Amino acid sequence: MELRPLGGTGIGVSPLGLGTVKIGRNQQVKYPSAFTIPNDGAVRELFDLAWELGVNVVDTAPAYGNSEERLGKLLPHKNDWIVVSKTGEIFENGASRFDFSAEFTRKSVERSLRLLGRDYIDIMLVHSDGNDMNIIRESAVCDTLQQLKQEGLIRAVGMSTKTVESGLWCVENMDVVMVTYNVDHTDELPVLQRAAELKKGVLIKKGLQSGHAQSISDSLHFVFTQPAAHSVIVGTIDSAHLRANVAVTERVLASCS
């Protein structure tokens, strides 16, 4: 797959990114069916295949169980991937908890760097609890991420948003926004449109409706008609699904050009 510029970040991303919830956590998730977390050999094979197919974006988070730790151990060509991680949410003892303080944010980023075995993280997002504007206005997380970027520990900062207002704020004030956009959820279209105007980076979550999409082709075509949809994050632990998703993405992008 041909890489695309992620807004003005200077980062090139594959149009399809690999989400890694399923390699680290299978509790309290919203997928159509239950699944077993794959062993190290299966994860290595999946990463090798993704790299072979041209996928260079991998999405993780502390909230994804031991996903970051497994990426640090198993990801091939580790320093060549574009790693997206998050701060603010931790999943432990079967439940999520949130902390957006400056101290927690710094420790969270440092922990992610250690687990991932990286000197820097390409894209670090705020993992919202749904109270996006409260996080922005009343916590230190966004300012702390900007400081960590200045220190060279992060290349680009942003938020995984849940409201239009916060998405627009993020587009105006940060480098990257991650938004939900699919055939059944178009509320955040104004965010994509404003991002296109300002040449800001956009990552799409739930483009396939967390596995509930009726047609992968129709769903991806719908998303990629938006110029600001730079990379769609799709989670899978099935090699056949990964091959199919990449093939469909390439066909869709060819038809959109």
Automatic annotation (TrEMBL):
Entries under CDD domains matching the protein: AKR_PA4992-like
| Chain ranges of the NADP-dependent oxidoreductase domain | 15-182
The protein here is known as: Aldo/keto reductase
Q: Which Pfam families match?
A: Aldo_ket_red
Identify the domain of life. Bacteria
Alphabetized InterPro entries for the sequence:
AKR, AKR2_Oxidoreductase, NAD(P)_OxRdtase_dom_sf, NADP_OxRdtase_dom
